[in-house]
Specification:
19 helices, two-stranded antiparallel sheet, about 65% helix, 4 strands, single chain, mainly alpha, about 425 residues
Length: about 425
């Protein structure tokens, strides 16, 4: 199946990969079984599907979490009583599938570079495992504040079922988008359409960032035989890109946010979007906690413009530095800065942040920050692209320079922070 999907007969998993995927599935059973007992997103999603209303017609109704509902229903033996079991099994399968996707993309990437042996390096395979399991913001803001629900830059979001479900499909969308730009044939377009559909019915957030990034790339660049981007504006492709963006704009304008089809306003406003971030309990609480720990006194009185000032000057730069330390340094030391995968990943992240800080919903959904959920997927793809780019360079092996060693050290700090978070999560069963 993987060989056909990637059009590459070298994309075959080893038995060790199967064992690792099974271990991820077992770990998922453990952590998600406990997670949905806590009153977090998983609990409320499950409650809304079973306790509040258990309507089979509603279960099969197309929506942003349709895949989670439908597959959970069948894995739970089509019964309300065992729906929770199917729910946990589905999320665990998605965690295992995420590893399979990352591993398959790694094998395909290096085989196309003519370096298939690189994909079998123990260090790279271990990094892929850590990317699935422990990747997180480097824990300085969390250790200072003691508050772990810190920012939208997290690679692994354990408490939100739609993010768990969409992550492998988002990574596939990112990678196949690039393959389709390089090899434009009917098969790739059909596969890409299928992956877009899977994203839409899991969690459509990443599509909002991927579509502009994909069509900007289509319009203003071409990819050479070595996989590097080169600027190449084409007016015909610009018209195609503009036409393809029309459904996205129309979809945003017609977005419904409640079951009663009560439309809430979507505002394009940078000040309003930033204020929405500050109104969110996690950002509001965390910035005050960080300022209090650093300065030694309470800053609960900071509101309005002063809070916005500290958010922009201290909190956001700090979390950006701690959240993207590895990919930033990996980009600066890379000799292949025009690598297609790397450029496309950075462009997707840039679009993700542009959406998060220019668009916001008014009304009761304002503090939910629904226009930020594309960022974790974009960060995960950026880490993957940075890892592949790093391991593809000859100068980094077998003897590393000190910048390369520092880059690996930063990646391990990201992984260690994620493991600390998992340890805290397991022992306290608190997602914050």
């Amino acid at each position: 199946m993987l060989t056909y999907l990637f059009s590459n007969d070298k994309v075959r998993l080893k038995w060790s990969d199967v064992v690792i995927a099974l271990l991820f599935f077992v770990f998922g059973l453990f952590i998600f079984t406990q997670m949905y007992r806590i009153q977090v997103d998983m609990f409320w999603h499950l409650r809304s599907m079973t306790i509040v209303v258990f309507d089979k017609g509603r279960l099969f109704k197309p929506s942003y979490d349709a895949m989670t509902r439908i597959v959970s229903y069948f894995l739970g033996f089509c019964s309300r009583d065992t729906f929770g079991l199917g729910y946990v099994c589905f999320l665990s399968l998605m965690l295992a599938f995420k590893y399979v996707v990352l591993r398959s993309v790694t094998i395909d990437y290096f085989s196309r570079l003519g370096k298939p042996e690189r994909s079998e390096l123990f260090a790279l395979r271990a990094a892929i495992v850590l990317l699935c399991l422990g990747g997180h913001i480097i824990a300085f803001p969390q250790l200072v504040s003691g508050y772990w629900q810190a920012d939208v830059l997290r690679l692994n979001v354990w408490h939100n079922p739609t993010t768990v479900a969409v992550m492998p499909f988002g990574i596939l969308l990112f990678y196949f988008g690039l393959l389709t730009l390089k090899v434009r044939n009917l098969k790739n377009y059909l596969i890409l359409a299928a992956i877009v559909t899977l994203n839409f019915f899991s969690k459509p957030s990443y599509i909002l960032a991927w579509i502009p990034a994909f069509f900007l790339t289509l319009t203003f660049s071409k990819i050479d035989e070595e996989g590097n981007f080169a600027f190449n504006f084409n007016f015909k492709r610009l018209l195609i890109a503009c036409a393809a963006l029309i459904p996205l704009v129309v979809g945003l304008l017609l977005l419904k946010t409640t079951s009663k089809s009560l439309r809430e306003h979507i505002l394009f406003s940078i000040p309003f979007a930033i204020q929405s971030h500050l109104l969110h309990i996690d950002f509001d609480r965390n910035i005050n906690l960080i300022l209090e720990r650093l300065a030694g006194r309470s800053f609960d009185v900071l509101k309005g413009s002063w809070q916005t000032f500290w958010y922009i000057v201290l909190y956001k730069p700090l979390t950006l530095a701690c959240g993207l330390a590895f990919p930033i340094l990996a980009f600066f030391i890379s000799k292949k800065k025009k690598d297609g995968l790397l450029v496309f990943a950075w462009l997707s992240l840039f679009v993700s942040f542009a959406i998060a800080y220019t668009l916001s919903q008014d009304g009761v959904h304002r503090t939910h920050l629904n226009f930020t959920w594309q960022i974790p997927v974009a960060v995960a793809t950026l880490f993957l692209a940075s890892l592949l780019n790093f391991f593809s360079e000859e100068d980094n092996f077998p003897k590393m320079s000190w910048p390369a060693a520092l880059t690996i050290g930063l990646f391990l700090l990201h992984a260690y922070s994620g493991l600390i978070y998992l340890q805290r999560l397991i022992f306290t069963w608190s997602w914050r």
